[in-house]
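Justification of resources, computational component.

The compute hours requested in this renewal are based largely on the per-chain cost of generating structure records like the one below. Each record pairs the submitted sequence with a full structure-token output. That output is archived, and it is also reused by downstream analysis tasks.
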Amino acid sequence: MQTGLRSAAASRFLLAARAIMCAWCGLWAATAWGAPPAGAEIDYAQQIKPVLASRCYHCHGPSKQESGLRLNQRESALAGGDSGERAIVPGKPEESRLIRLVRGDEPGTRMPPEEEGAPLSPEEIDLLTRWVAAGAPWPADADEAAAPPDHWAWRPPVQATLPAVRQAEWCRTPVDYFVLAKLEEAGLQPSREADRWQLIRRVSLDLTGLPPTPAQVEEFVNDPSPLAYERLVDRLLADPAYGERWARMWLDLARYADSKGYGSDPLRTIWRYRDWVIDSFNQNMPYDRFTIEQLAGDLLPDATMEQVLATAFHRNTMANDEGGTDDEEFRVAAVKDRVETTMQVWMGLTAGCAKCHSHKYDPLTQREYYQLYAFFNQTEDADRPDESPRLATPTREQQRALAGLLAEAENLRRELAAPSLDLSAGQAAWEERLAAQESAWQVLLPRQATALEAALEV
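The structure output for this chain reads:
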């Protein structure tokens, strides 16, 4: 009991100290540089930001965004929070929710709340009001918005200039200039040109993962054409082994597996998606189409079976249908996995951190994370043991076999439905026999039937 009382007393002391410090900081912020006279230009960094930092950032700053409002970034501050009402409307203080809240225009909605500190002073409120009325000037260098990191996903593509090299005669393609520049920078010389035996082995292993056959080696080595290498590369790119090798890279990104991943790791039948990826590489499918069909192939007009099959990219998420698991929990986990995988694969961006809270230097906020989440939160799969809904996607060979079986079944149905001479003759003979026996039948009247029943009972 004594320990509990001490904890309660300490808590009350900390709350009181916090309120005093908030009030002191607010007073200091308003008086440190002095409130500007009416009509004077207001400096955001020197006069507005200190007020926001000392009185608002605790709940609406870089580490916490209560009600979705963040006041240390211009774009977020102007947009407002979950209420849908703009926090700051430049030039219009009366329409700015921030001004109305710090003034306490509506009972019970004054900001900051009583437990978070004293109200803003009249001088602070006047300062904020005049700043908004002046258009809420907010210099870019004073904004704490997280600048996009220096990462390839955020850089617009630009035409690179060829680096200067000392042995320009060695270069045959633009790529050679970049290779040679690095070699010269390291004080190295280019290796001698590979002979044809080495060259075909290297390119075969790189494109197909397989060594060349003796016949392929002889064909390339003895080809006198200056386009021999180009023809070799074209043949290897047309080889089905090319798609099988390079599809592995994408299947890793798609977290492809032949099992469900959790617990006993039961099997999963999704190899048709694997074959779709292999076929896409072999067909040299354009990257934009490759992207669209995997993310939204089922939404395309008159979508083909192959386009719908492509959307199995996001059916590779792990599933847990063991006894005692909660279906909704793992459905949500699957949706989050789809958000994070999409951002990582197509944006080169780790988005998973934002599912818990916003980060000061992270380009994605928690709100934006769940806006992305909403796109994928419309799926019908719900971590069911049979992984429904499922779509039958037979291969071309299976389709041909199925068509043959259906045709055979239809022929058998017609054969059964066709009239048979033997059956007709048998039916007629049976009917004649029944008609002949009709004269031997005796129809019992009700009284006779009762007497017969009584006799049988005896």
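DSSP finds 19 helices and no strands in the chain. The first helix runs from residue 2 to 31.
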